[in-house]
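Quick one: examine the sequence and fold tokens given here and explain what the tokens say about the fold. Here goes:
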Amino acid sequence: MAGLTVGGCSEADDPFPVSGELTLTAFRSCDQALEGLTSAARRYISPWGLTRPGDFVAGAVEDAAGAAEVGGADRAPAAAEVLPDQRTDGDYSTTNVHESGVDEPDLIKTDGERVFALVGGRLHIVDVASRHRTTLDLSTESWGGQLLLSEDRVLVILPDAPPVPPASSTLPTDIPAIATRLVLVEIAGPDGSPRIISDLTLDGEYLDARQVGDQVRLVTRSGPRLPWRYPEVDVSETEALLANQILLANSTIEDWLPRYRLETAGTVEEGLIPCDRVSHPANYTGSSMLTVLSVDLTRELSLENTVTITADGNVVYGTAESLYIANDLRYAATALEDASASTALHTELYKFDTTGSGAPRYVAAGTVPGWLLNQYALSEYDGHLRVATTVATDPSNPTGTESGVYVLRQSGDDLVTVGSVGGLGRTEQIYAVRFLGPTGYVVTFRQTDPLYTIDLRDPTAPQLVGELHITGYSSYLHPVADDRLLGVGQEATTEGMTLGTQISLFDVSDPAAPERITAHHLEGAWSEAEFDPHAFLYWPDTGLLVIPVTIWETTAEPAGPDTPVDSRGMLSTLGGGALVMRLSGDSLTEIGMVPHHPDPAGAGMIRRTVLIDNTLWTLSDVGLRVSDGTTLEEQAWIPFA
């Protein structure tokens, strides 16, 4: 059985062994690929095109909101051994990440001498000492995007680029499509002027990326580009379905493979991902392809080490040696013909070896019941993968849920479950999860917040050892010194109605009896740090804690015709900034709020913060503010006009 290799198939060097339904096998030819894709997709053709498992289906269990990070427990390894750290060898903060040594893309990066920010399709480069700003216009209307940094090179990721135009195809050029654009920029010359080295646009929705050293692995998800017919006033569902079936039957391989356009030094290369770089599991829908692109930041962009699989995915987790892609199938049961099959409510896991600078190598796959919250529900430790999921015990009932933790170990090319503990938070869903060494923490919520402590020292017999019940919930928790956890989430009533951002300090020195020591509640507020850990800054040297907050303040008089109304019918106005606090011992003290210059469109809302030599840099869509890290007094304002 042939496996996926760079540049073609090889019987001798087979990275895709054939054991288990999820094992990946390379297509031998484009004809075989087309037959396999169209055959698999026939099952999902509808009057609205190709229905992919994972698309919204009425009655599906709603997602829990939030990102998660929890840490610290009695008898766990020392924090320096297992925790990511925003500190560096220099005196500046870095992006808050899941795994130490594995960087994640974000809106802002710094090397202590320069600050790089991506706002409104422009890369802003600010010299820390002089506060001089240089801007590179990337010729895009995108307001999204992320950055990765390696010395004098910046990788710009633009997730909503215009689709790649077909080089030679009979397809209309106006078919809706999603593309991801990568721009490799070098900061060159004595004045630090940026120049574009390579510019790559690849068909597919951007999922996520991870960087280890100079090596970046980036994952996109794409689907077939076909002009589906939809029901209209003069087109019945039956007619639309028949038209889509004909479209599928007449499709060509060019309609399925991801397209790319690469420009380097004025030379343009266009094409399709080759068929021999596409692999498939035994069972697949044909509706989605995952492409893993390898980028060496010391070289130009290329498609040399790219691999594609005919699978879906929505969660990416990476370590220094492995990359996992999780395929969440919580909605698949209602999309399949056998809609009553509760076994479809599970998550597929694909593991790739990412050591070295070549193409990622598929090594194993497995499944777990239920669905993931986010990447923090996955953790590789001591030869095992720990996974926390919410399981639908009754898919027809939104409260028919419970959660559990599963421990998997690689056996050949399979990820095999060797231990599990379930029954957590019945009727609730996971809102936060973090594994630290041999200890795991899970937060579930519907009306109150149980914080569960899981003993994972014996991976074959995980045990629930403690729990804490309080109002509200923490959707992001961060480990600090002396067996303490900082939690960011929402306070709530006993009925589960949220009341505003809350920062909590937990004592987890006794895993059997976790305790909340103190809390700081900001009424009517929410923070991006509640669902994106990159927005969280904690500096352990001084105990400085910074999160962006947005506050809806109730008023007695209407502030204007467009003023929003809250759940109590009161008119509200928008405020907020960067909330700055200090942790000292077991106390949390508010230092103040750092605002940005007012903006009527709300663009002055702060998104990220960076600490450099005791100066606090706060980023919004309108500019960067530099403040004294102790007094919060403004030192400079750098507008992005």
Q: What stands out?
A: The chain is about 5% helix and 45% strand. The mean pLDDT is 83. Residues 3-471 form one domain.
